[in-house]
Records
---
Amino acid sequence: MSINTDNEQIADVSGLGVLGIVAAVLALMFFYRFSESGFIPILDHANLAFHEAGHPIFGMFGWTMGLLGGTLGQLVFPIAVTVTFLRKGALVPAALGLIWLFQNFLNVARYIADARAQDLPLVGNGDRLHDWNTLLMQWHALSSDTSIARAVTVIAWMGMMATFLWVTIVWLRTRE
């Protein structure tokens, strides 16, 4: 049985699919809780590649967009994955794309929080600008770096939890 959500067909969500979403969120919580740096190597190296690719892609639209491009790059790719799966009616893979998107918000928050301290290692030969230090200075908000980072962290976890709830609600409706 499929359910109709906003005139789009969403395929059945199995209990195993819901369990997969729960496992993904719990794994992220575990890794972030017990990782000193909050870095999950296999996932975050991929995120870093998308971040770095975003700089020249968005940089075509100006200097500020080039700085924002790293963050935008690491958000655009999970959004594209999510939209692709939603268009196919594949809810669980789309939900995993959303979890990947919100996991990236945790990385962005860590980078924003580092804007003043600049302790995180940057990719490159040492002459790179710290994106968020430069952006927040430009916007006269550098002293708010950790507050902004906390808000982005809350958005990240709320997004992951909302994704889980969405999949669970769809699963429960398909069982009726």
---
Amino acid sequence: MTNLPARTALFAGLVSDELDRPVEVVMVSDVPNYVIDDMGFRRHVESEAVDRQVIELLREQFMEHKEIAIDAMLQMLGKDDLFTKAMIDASIRNMDQVIEKGLPDDARAWLGMLGFGVVVNTHGEVVRLDMPEQEEES
């Protein structure tokens, strides 16, 4: 029998409600849940439902600006070769795999420091993604 790693809430610490209050993460059995305060009632929403919405919204935004996103990632990595570009392109197309693999704590902290955030309503529906600001090139 293989022990699977415990699932985690991908965006733990980055999710808040519409009143800008951080959303807590709790385990219900072995399933991570975001806990959203609804006027004192603690609504539990499976984190995967929220996380999949976020991943899909990110994928849509990346696809709208695919070339800019790939160029920015290449610049961040300090590389500009065909293989790295293909790897980044494949990663964007397969973003949903992060649900199974998880997001490293460092990456989550880095996203928070950059200003990334997820805002959900009381039903766990993503109402807004706060994204890091892009500097305008002059």
---
Amino acid sequence: MSGARRAMSALAVTVAVALPVSACATMSAVAHKAAAQGNPAPVPDRSGTRLGSHLIGYTTPDFPDGMAPFRQLEKETGVAARVATWYTPMSLPFHPQTVARISAQGVVPIVEIDSGTTPLARVADGEWDKHFIAYARAVAAYSSPIGIDFDHEFNGPWFRWGYAHTKAATFVAAWRRIVWLFRENGARNVMWIWNPNVDLGDTTAIGPWYPGDQYVTYVGLDGYFVHPGQTFSTVFGPTLRQVNAFTHKSILITETGANPGAQRAAQIDSLFAGLEATPQILGFIWFDFNKYAGHDWVLQGDMPALRAFHAAAQQYQK
């Protein structure tokens, strides 16, 4: 089970709640007709907003409201973050002050928006248009680069938006509609990160869930070193082959970690070696949470792992 499957206690970036209301009255007749079909004509991505390469980032408890665990992790690894993620419910509006505070520290912010228990058919049908239009306009006004990752790990059965509860066509229609609304409302500073989990056996094929290259900036991957014998190749290899069967987009590992124990330092070395051998991957984000038994990704205090992380990172970011 992925380290993010129980990350539904989202880190709220504001306390206000936007209610889903149809925005038909705010859209032109032509625009609404296109969006209502669930497959609007793509608005080209002309933003020029892109991530760099050899990225190392973190996500920590209480981030971004509480920075202490994040800063402590940077201190102990000796590696400053260049990218960071946090989770927020779909109902919350964009909070530019929080995002700007992260960006001002040289960290690219990635907001992982989760639809929760809201059926994605309601998003695909336009019931949430007003909310996303307001969100998009606020992001456009913010203007600096930002990543948005909507409904990650959809290929697993553990979330309400995943394959056990949602059809691939509905997910694709909702994704395309959101991207279309953002671009139509001037939010060209967004990098759209389409984020499956790695293949775990209980996951479904990801190809039918792909919205198309015109709606995706990067592919994200969530994958963990859960068992002692796992390597970069065994964790990520099968899913990388699936991805490359339908797109050659660059990839960001949006969640990863390794359980403590004698194997952890070697698995960190394997992670960095895999990155070096796979230029298509731009970097990774360490998910520094102790979720439950057998899924403890916290690095702080683990000196052998921290030494391995620091040494490999220094070589990786040369």
